[in-house]
Amino acid sequence: MINIKEIKKQLEQANSLCELEALRINLLGRQGVLNSYLKDLKNLPLDERKKRGEELNLIKEELECIISKKIEAINRSLLLERLKKDSIDPYLPPFPINIGRMHILNRVINKIIHVLERLGYEAVEGPEVETEYYNFEALNMPLHHPARDMWDTFYLNNGKLLRTHTSPIQIRAMEANKLPIKIIASGRCFRRDNPDASHSPIFHQIEALYIDKGVSFAHLKGTLEYFARSMFGREQKVKFILSYFPFVEPGAEVAVKCVICKGRGCITCKQTGWLEILGAGMVHPEVLERQNIDYKIYSGFAFGMGAERIAMLMYGINHIRHFLDNDLRFLNQFKYNLED
Ligand SMILES: [Zn+2]
């Protein structure tokens, strides 16, 4: 017969999970002690078999209960031992957690796109490596056109070039889209400029293009006034200065009241009180005609700006280099979203 007392004693003395598991297998496993008794039941007379069976089942339940309690006790003592060894001080301050955030330039670009999206513009992108056709010819600058000098261009060995502005995206949109067109094109641009405080060989442009029946300069003015106020504050004043770009007619530079001196005159605005923020104009009929858009029915405007310049004016950043340096002392100044 099973010596239950002895078994309980053995279980009680087990002090590791390994030891306990070995005992469990020996007692309750398929080849275990209890099973061998259960197998022998069939040799007993019926009435004894029933009684004995019940007894064995009770023993089995009891042993299972003892073992699970013992496992719990061993685990608890192991945990206490570990806690004693690696003591935790809940009053220590936690390690600082550095959470990444979007680069200030990207945030400014997103804000510009967001403002224009509210007016129904759709954001599109295009390739950085372009052909002469998209970068110049289609924009009313045939070969040897003097205006090409305005863009010092990086040419590639395969005859292509690095786009000098995002305007090629406008041409691609005119080719692909059905009219009307209302897009924002943004991305990296490249020019062989000598680097200085406001010029870098790599910079970001954002442009908008709107072509529909009856689009006029008044629409352009309204759009840019809304844009300037959304970016630089409700009271912002906007000035249009006649200017030349080959792909628009008429063309204009757009200036806002100096955000640094509020129009009184300072070094940033060269004492004029105004800051030019973007170039704009009515899309040149030549450009429309090239894309088979009937300029007698359709008209449109375009405007474009350097994202770095806008960010520099919004945050008083004094050198374009800071955007590329990845200096955390600079980047960490801009901890919050622009909408905050
Ligand atoms: Zn100023």
From TrEMBL:
<dbReference type="InterPro" id="IPR004188">
    <property type="entry name" value="Phe-tRNA_ligase_II_N"/>
</dbReference>
<dbReference type="InterPro" id="IPR002319">
    <property type="entry name" value="Phenylalanyl-tRNA_Synthase"/>
</dbReference>
<keyword id="KW-0648">Protein biosynthesis</keyword>
<feature type="binding site">
    <location>
        <position position="249"/>
    </location>
    <ligand>
        <name>Mg(2+)</name>
    </ligand>
</feature>
<comment type="subunit">
    <text>Tetramer of two alpha and two beta subunits.</text>
</comment>
<dbReference type="InterPro" id="IPR022911">
    <property type="entry name" value="Phe_tRNA_ligase_alpha1_bac"/>
</dbReference>
<keyword id="KW-0436">Ligase</keyword>
<keyword id="KW-0030">Aminoacyl-tRNA synthetase</keyword>
<keyword id="KW-0479">Metal-binding</keyword>
<keyword id="KW-0067">ATP-binding</keyword>
<dbReference type="InterPro" id="IPR006195">
    <property type="entry name" value="aa-tRNA-synth_II"/>
</dbReference>
<dbReference type="Pfam" id="PF01409">
    <property type="entry name" value="tRNA-synt_2d"/>
</dbReference>
<protein>
    <recommendedName>
        <fullName>Phenylalanine--tRNA ligase alpha subunit</fullName>
        <ecNumber>6.1.1.20</ecNumber>
    </recommendedName>
</protein>
<keyword id="KW-0547">Nucleotide-binding</keyword>
<dbReference type="GO" id="GO:0005524">
    <property type="term" value="F:ATP binding"/>
</dbReference>
<feature type="domain" description="Aminoacyl-transfer RNA synthetases class-II family profile">
    <location>
        <begin position="102"/>
        <end position="333"/>
    </location>
</feature>
<dbReference type="InterPro" id="IPR010978">
    <property type="entry name" value="tRNA-bd_arm"/>
</dbReference>
<comment type="similarity">
    <text>Belongs to the class-II aminoacyl-tRNA synthetase family. Phe-tRNA synthetase alpha subunit type 1 subfamily.</text>
</comment>
<dbReference type="GO" id="GO:0000049">
    <property type="term" value="F:tRNA binding"/>
</dbReference>
<dbReference type="InterPro" id="IPR045864">
    <property type="entry name" value="aa-tRNA-synth_II/BPL/LPL"/>
</dbReference>
<dbReference type="Pfam" id="PF02912">
    <property type="entry name" value="Phe_tRNA-synt_N"/>
</dbReference>
<dbReference type="InterPro" id="IPR004529">
    <property type="entry name" value="Phe-tRNA-synth_IIc_asu"/>
</dbReference>
<dbReference type="GO" id="GO:0005737">
    <property type="term" value="C:cytoplasm"/>
</dbReference>
<keyword id="KW-0460">Magnesium</keyword>
<dbReference type="GO" id="GO:0004826">
    <property type="term" value="F:phenylalanine-tRNA ligase activity"/>
</dbReference>
<keyword id="KW-0963">Cytoplasm</keyword>
<dbReference type="GO" id="GO:0006432">
    <property type="term" value="P:phenylalanyl-tRNA aminoacylation"/>
</dbReference>
<dbReference type="GO" id="GO:0000287">
    <property type="term" value="F:magnesium ion binding"/>
</dbReference>
